[in-house]
Amino acid sequence: MRKLNMPIRDEDIRSLKVGDPVMLNGIMLTGRDAVHKWMVDTFIEKKHPPQGEDEKIYAKIKPMLNGGVIYHCGPVVSGLDTGDYKFVAAGPTTSIREEPYQGPVMHHFNLKGVVGKGGMGPKTLQACHDVPGVYFHAIGGAATLIAQSVKKVLGVYKMEFGVPEAIWVLEVEDFPVVVTMDAHKNSLHAEVEAKSKIELERLLGAS
Amino acid sequence: MQDYTEHILELVRLTATDLSPDVEKALKVARDREEKGSAARGALDSILLNVDMARKNSTPICQDTGTPIFYVYHPEGWSTRKLRQQIENAVAEATRRAYLRPNAVNSLTGKNTGDNVGDEYFPTVHFEEVEGSTLTIELMLKGGGSENVGAQYKLPDSRLGAGRDLNGIRKVVLDTVYQAQGKGCSPGFLGVTIGGDRGSSYCASKEVLFRKLSDTHPNPELAKLEGRITDEANQLNIGPMGFGGKTTVLGTKVTDIHRLPACYFVSISYTCWAYRRRKMIAENGKVTYE
Questions:
Q1: ipTM given for this complex
Q2: Is B124 part of the contact surface with chain A (CB cutoff 8 Å)?
Q3: How far apart are CA A115 and CA A31, in angstroms?
């Protein structure tokens, strides 16, 4: 199986095709609903001025996201009282909620990959083509299994968003994913949806 | 009244980390049905491996440990106020032990309470008095991804050509499965209510998910509808995780409740493959789990 190290090079991204299984290695950051809104409102559209530590956090995460990947994940973490964090359960969350934000976030941070589940829509597919980047699908709900790939928690930012919504900085080893949206405008999700629509129409016509 | 906090804590641990045998069996049957080497089969292999590891390690099957939904059936004269307190204490302790993710978020401020105790709706607790001296507590942990793909229709629905009959019900349920694609972590299970008002209809669609997978509806027409919906949902070929494949829905449970003349709601609760529900029975000083 193909292994990729983060940061990922453009030629590697362009060589990936829908259906390719991949093992990811290196530094990965989690970010989901609150993080995407915060990134867009504060640093991309600049609707709100940075608060508190925001600018320091931005300076820390920007180089890690450059050529890197973001993981749509709200983990179960142990060691919250001691700060000796360990990922106990860490499967992907549904990605489509980030559809309004993902393209701008990919462009702004030069993100090469988005890890999540359920797939994303046409705006993200366009961003995958332009940046370039890919969407990596992890197995939804396989939380204990996926947590084994997280070797170390290197840090956490924006803890005021709560444990599931914070930015967790992870070192991962052989993190298992499948490419379901590539940099050539192919989306397994669009394909499955189109085919299922034909079946739905047929079934709706029955009595 | 006895303090059941420790027993409820065990119920929470069991529900979060140990998938019921009937659900695991259904997943195995589905895995064997998918083609060798397909993404669908690979997904189900990972799911089954994960179920096994979670049970052995006593760690959550899925990181989204969901809304804790309790149904408490208690003997006459028991204090529901005390029982609720015990449930809240157990849930908070389960969160400290990382069986549960802190999931209760203030809708206005975004602040997470950190212990899964939010307000009188979180955790959700339903009480019902029963005859005899047995205490039964059922718990479902219902994740947010699958909750987001649930739906409510009012019939007739002209977009789908769905009238106020069993065929109309079939159509709107299939539309829900189509709309969900893989976003609710398929293969899923469907709880369907025919009737009620908007609130009772959704509520009953979750209650029906406490039924055993092997149960069929006592009304033969509804039993037939359950089977047909599952069968036709699988013809959509959405597959595990939305990767395409033969298994999209593993079971459908239908219930019908009285409605107003003007209203004809059909409510669908979708639960992901990590269909977590368990039962605790306290009888003659002895506590058992199912």
A1: 0.94
A2: no
A3: 10
